[in-house]
């Protein structure tokens, strides 16, 4: 898990990681208004902003990406 100050930074990292590591990455917002990238096996402590798979944001009922 890594923490970023902005959503765009976290989303960019998640897109890159999901593409190059061939894994699913979750981006979520913490109560402190930080953004975290995590693998699906990591605990999520906030609101999910997006889920990235193969370099793309995956539509999901859990996601609130606009």
TrEMBL record:
It comes from the Bacteria. This is Uncharacterized protein. It comes from Variovorax ginsengisoli.
């Amino acid at each position: 898990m890594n923490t970023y100050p902005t959503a765009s930074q976290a989303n960019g990292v998640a897109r890159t990681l999901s593409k190059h590591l061939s894994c699913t990455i979750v981006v979520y917002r913490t109560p402190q208004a930080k953004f975290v990238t995590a693998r699906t096996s990591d605990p999520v402590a906030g609101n999910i902003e997006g889920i990235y798979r193969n370099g793309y944001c995956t539509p999901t009922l859990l996601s609130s990406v606009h």
